[in-house]
# Entry
Amino acid sequence: MSSFSPVEIVRRILDEPLVRPAHLQWRRRQFLSRDGHGSHFGVFDSFKAARAWLPPSPEFDHPALAAEYVDVRTKKVFSYDYPVMWWLDRALRDGASTVLDIGGSVGVHYYAYGRYFHMPDALRWRVVEVPTMVLIGKNLAAQTGTAALSFSENLHESVGTASDDVWISAGAIHYFEDGRPDQLLKKCVRRPQHILLNKLPLYNGEDFVTVQNIGEGAFAPLHVYNRARFIQDIKALGYTLWDKWAVQERSMDLPGYPERSFPSFTGLYFVDSARMFKGSKPLLS
# Structure
């Protein structure tokens, strides 16, 4: 006889045909309220459709969202940061000297990670962000005398002229409408040797778009990717998947779509197959 946890029993009841419409209506109201911060809702076939459903929103181009990045995230790392820090430190020790940080807010990774390991004096770290974050990031870099940081508002221009050794995107690339990594890599002048992607919404179903309440009255659409296809598309460009990890602090609980919900996000580290670490073997096949 099968047994279910109390949470599973409640979910099954809420998915009953007579209960489900009222439950979804309540979850929709909650999602659009301040109490919905961090939650997701809906399945859409494009960013355009998702934005048409959402109330008007500045998305991440919102000064109120920058406060946490400046006051907290430039000074603190979280458990999901440690795999990225480990491999970035290795890459820098191996000779990498330029970083493209896609969605790196005000330069949080440069500031926070630099508290834990040495950043080379010649390091150049470029952040691609929305205009508000770029302005605040530039001001912060000027105030702190951080010459290594530079900022850009144009993802495709930055990628099109990129010849960086390392690409990082930590919890950000899926918010870019045209930010699929394999497509960006095809536009590079010189592809990076190291690619660090963290807090990715990967699962075993089909790609789709959903929306998130990102706080301070703002909402944003985001991609959710099929795990196997996402990884294979990068590997097909000559990369080896060197490491992967579960990000337990992030999950996708999508009301009305249990088959599109999953308990954790994912971190991935790829290296150029032709330029692997000397004397090392990949952790993954």
Remarks:
- The first helix runs from residue 6 to 14.
- The CA atoms of residues 109 and 268 lie 16 Å apart.
